[in-house]
Amino acid sequence: MILDEIAEKTRIRISEKKKQVPLSEICRVAQKRTAVEKGANGGFTFPFEKAIGSGGISFICEVKKASPSKGVISEDFSYLQIAKEYENAGADALSVLTEPYYFQGNDRYLQEIAKEARIPILRKDFTVDPYMIYEAKLMGASAVLLICALLSDEELKNDIKISHGLGLSALVEAHDEKEVYRAIACGARIVGVNNRDLNTFQVDLSTSVRLRSLVPKSVLFVSESGIANPSDIKKLKENKTNAVLIGETMMRSQDKKSLIKDLREV
Ligand SMILES: O=P(O)(O)OC[C@@H](O)[C@@H](O)c1c[nH]c2ccccc12
């Protein structure tokens, strides 16, 4: 199973990082940063939730070089320019892959993009350890991805709590009924339904349509993966989807501004 393989590689990657900067240290620095921000803002602001929950359908555009299902999507991959184009095209938020082996992502891409971006950023990685949430905070992300299939209920609850405690949003990813229920029971304020099965790579937009009704109004609903054209957006809009997460279609577009405009106008 590819998902288990990626998770295993991620565990090894994080154990190496812990040798450089231990958990206690990264936790301390991240909490210090949070306290400073909290003080300056008079409390938490949760910019990612604000950006995708402000009415209508919001666009989270993904900066993605490659994927296990599609191989290399962007050869030259000028990530800073891509992020800027998304922002200028009217994206509500960015998603930046940091997983290095299967998606050719890099922590540095997110850090550099965060220095320039004026819209919130989701750290897209396979969170298997709270360490990665503290890292996301220090990289300048506003949200992390938590994949239900990789976490027990206890871990999910704890990771959501840590994220919220740092002023980060958690996009909790589900792929079936059971996972949607788990996400909500564990305290998710944002549920993302991945239309792509991470083990078979099959994409089916009806997964989002089917699972939408299980998510209460008080929780934001994101449809992820395989979104390609206005008719997809139309279906999701009719289904009261708060936001879409689009990678490949955006990455391959030569004119991101007209693409987002066309998708918004449905
Ligand atoms: O490129 P697409 O099909 O538009 O998909 C984007 C995004 O949803 C996808 O990259 C994704 C969704 N969930 C993930 C979990 C891990 C890695 C990647 C993902």
UniProtKB/TrEMBL annotation:
GO molecular function (one): indole-3-glycerol-phosphate synthase activity
Q: SUPFAM superfamilies attached here? A: Ribulose-phoshate binding barrel
Q: Known InterPro entries for this protein?
A: Aldolase_TIM, Indole-3-glycerol_P_synth, Indole-3-glycerol_P_synth_dom, Indole-3-GlycerolPSynthase_CS, RibuloseP-bd_barrel
Q: Which domain of life is it from?
A: Bacteria
**NCBIfam families, from UniProt?**
PRK00278.2-4
Q: Which keywords describe this protein according to UniProt? A: Amino-acid biosynthesis, Aromatic amino acid biosynthesis, Decarboxylase, Lyase, Tryptophan biosynthesis
Reactions accelerated catalytically: 1-(2-carboxyphenylamino)-1-deoxy-D-ribulose 5-phosphate + H(+) = (1S,2R)-1-C-(indol-3-yl)glycerol 3-phosphate + CO2 + H2O
Q: Which residues form the Indole-3-glycerol phosphate synthase domain?
A: 3-263
Its recorded name reads Indole-3-glycerol phosphate synthase
Species whose genome carries this gene: Blautia liquoris
EC annotation from Swiss-Prot or TrEMBL: 4.1.1.48
Which top EC class is named for this enzyme in its record?
A: lyase
Keyword Glycoprotein listed: no
| Classification via Gene3D superfamilies | Aldolase class I (3.20.20.70)
